[in-house]
Amino acid sequence: MEHRILTSIEEMVAEREALYSMLGDLPDTSMPIGATLDSRDDNGDFIIERWTLDINGIEMVPALVTLPKNGGGPFPVVLYNHAHGGHYQHGKEELLTGRAAILDPPYAGVLAARGIAAVGIDTWVFGDRCHNDEASTFKKMLWNGQVMWGMMVFDNIRTIDFIADHPALDDSRIATMGLSMGSTMAWWTAALDERVKVCIDLCCLTDFHSLIETGNLNGHGVYYYIPNLLKENWSTSRINAMIAPRPRLALAGDLDPLTPTRGLEIINEHLKKVYSTHGVEENWKMVRYAEIGHIETAEMREEILSFLDIHL
């Protein structure tokens, strides 16, 4: 699918508004942010803050903030998006404890050692919000005109409002990243919110049409699917084009069934043209690994940290 490359501010604003309108009936963005600090602890290598956020007017959102111990801040910050993997009770704790698909050590300490803070929330039905199952939540939301993915993205964007209010966090230097579902959340959030200055996705830059062609729609949970998205000619390439000209890194394994290789080629070719049109070819980078599936490797970790060092 070919998409026209947009360059004017007016066109980009209209494009974001059009995509946002696909996300169902969302809460009011003008609602003030409520944030309660529940605890603040020194784990030896970095500071751990636990917060409860009132950001959607429906249910409270538990949040985790990790801060470097050296330097007074405000620190550059990574909005870290947790994965899915059916581990509903894990959620934001992935930032502290990692998971099987993510290389050790977990990102909280790795980022803190480089002077970078991190923020993560439990998204709907995960972590401290897993009081309802995913399928039931998806169905109930649909009945009420809501789209589950839209509600998840909404909370993430409102978390950026929280970052902007936190005195130890530098809201002019925000990156977002994640693996799997967290990868998808990273590029949706960056596409819709220009306050994100750097976007890194790990193992989930999935071209929708290629996923259909390979017959692997069940590889993603129900949360992933948005009514009328393809009908309105949205593609992964078109959504990611809205991140340009901001720095963008994509890492993928050629053996990953969630990112068909033909789809990766389509996305890469389009974004190379987009970033070239903006005059910043160097800000788009896709790295593929021939013998890797849906997992982070040492080489991927090195790419991520190098990208953050350069651009954040």
Q: Can you walk through the features of this model?
A:
This protein has 312 residues and is an alpha/beta fold. The protein is 34% helix and 22% strand. It contains 10 helices and 9 strands. Strands 1-2-3-5-4-6-7-8-9 form a 9-stranded mixed β-sheet, sandwiched between helices. The protein starts with 8 loop residues before the first helix and ends with a helix. The model has no long low-confidence stretch (mean pLDDT 96).
Topology:
Elements: H1 9-20, E1 34-42, E2 46-54, E3 61-68, E4 75-81, H2 94-97, H3 107-113, E5 117-121, H4 134-143, H5 148-165, E6 169-179, H6 181-192, E7 196-202, H7 208-213, H8 236-241, E8 248-253, H9 261-277, E9 284-289, H10 298-311
Parallel strand pairs: 4-5, 4-6, 6-7, 7-8, 8-9
Antiparallel strand pairs: 1-2, 2-3, 3-5
Helix pairs in contact: 5-6
Offer a few descriptive terms.
nine-stranded mixed sheet; 312 residues; alpha/beta; globular
